[in-house]
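Dear colleague,

Thank you for sharing your sequence with our group. We've completed the structure prediction you requested, and as agreed, I am returning the results in plain text so they can be pasted directly into your records. Please verify that the sequence below matches your submission; if there's any discrepancy, let me know and we will rerun it promptly.
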Amino acid sequence: MFSWSKGTGKKDPELFQNVSDGLKRLYRNKLFPLEDTYRFHDFHSPALEDADFDNKPMVLLVGQYSTGKTTFIRHLMEQDFPGMRIGPEPTTDSFIAVMHGEQEGVIPGNALVVDPKKPFRKLNAFGNAFLNRFMCAQLKNPVLESISIIDTPGILSGEKQRISRGYDFAAVLEWFAERVDRIILLFDAHKLDISDEFSEVIKALKNHEDKMRVVLNKADQISTQQLMRVYGALMWSLGKIINTPEVVRVYIGSFWAQPLLVTDNRKLFEAEEQDLFRDIQSLPRNAALRKLNDLIKRARLAKVHAYIITSLKKEMPSVFGKDTKKKELISNLGAIYEKIEKEHNISPGDFPNLKKMQELLVGQDFSKFPALKPKLLESVEDMLANDIAKLMTLVRQEEASMPNQMVKGGAFDGTMNGPFGHGYGEGAGEGIDELEWVVGRDKPSYDEIFYTLSPVNGKVSGAAAKKEMLKSKLPNTVLGKIWTLADVDKDGFLDDEEFALANHLIKVKLEGYELPAKLPAHLVPPSKRGQEQQ
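Please find the predicted structure tokens below.
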């Protein structure tokens, strides 16, 4: 249980049983009192609950209608889910939380937000217009044992976006963005126009770029030349909206279980899909770290918010001219930001959006704002300086104790093993299923070079081999690794088979493939097989 009666002054670092328990206690005992005192929840984000710390990692899918969001979920799980509708028109008109459950079925929004075990209780604030468009699809699926997926309504374009949804769509997405582990923006290769509503949504996700990934879907429906143009146009469009110097990671492919229409870029699509799958699979392993990171971000914002509120309170007159002063303070909020920034040595990036804060302050009574309470701020400072460090150590310990914690099942298992695994039979894996030694195909040409190096007792020295290997123009670090792999018997010389193996590995690297960390069994020279490998 939480210790509600504990003081908020500086004390010894807390002791935690696990990361989840530690996050809950730090939030309730140290951060929540600061948030509650300065009405943080009225301005920024509702209070966190136990379910927010206990829930599985969540993936939020966002995109215009018919970009393949629901199909993407179907592709990952390899199973239909309750409430699923797929079509070329705007079919998904609701937010659907796809979660694991023993009994398959749908839980409507109003029932969902009163369930203390689900992390959606605070969505109640968006009212019936939203809750009537919110549901949870429960089903038994191995993918959902590790993650939950949030499907969203297609973002509208053209005339459609003028019709109000009845709730603040961007605000709902921002609420989800704060709590999910990954945000996937889907684009259709044929529909790159970013509508006003889509632009508003991306801006609402502005503080969560670290969670954001972009998918250019249906890329198999266009030629390579068109794909290059579409990719460039997408990056240009995103660059205008996401004002960061870093380039957003874009995954290109066709994310469904149907034959590719244009197969020219098959290898690219396979590599991109594997990269995206690895990113999603890593979410359970990094979930605790993500929650810790989000708590730190929240604490920094809560501190700044407290300084803003107390600064406004301090500037207010005690009796006359309150309304005039309030308007003046709101219009000069930028100057107050600068003053707080210098006075408390706070980074500009920690401050809330100026325009949004000004809008929220209009309806507030500044005279009712509380004065500065140093103990509350000291408690949060203590949490950031001491408790978070201890919790960080615990995160690493939990990660080490569960090294294989990753998403399994569905499409994730389709390419894990066997000949359809990504890169199977390519690069260093070439010839893995063959009875003959794959290096033997080119060995006659390698032998010609070998005998020009004047071998002694059937072997060439390292110095002689080096001169030949340097002709590849590969860096010494790479050639050094190739030497280590090729010198199977570790005698410091290369015989004809080992020399052929070294040249084969050079060819593998020059073709753009990675070298193996350890020499695969099928590449071991026939005369060396059965020898103990070091």
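Summary note from our side: The first strand starts at residue 58 and ends at 63.

Kind regards,
the structure core
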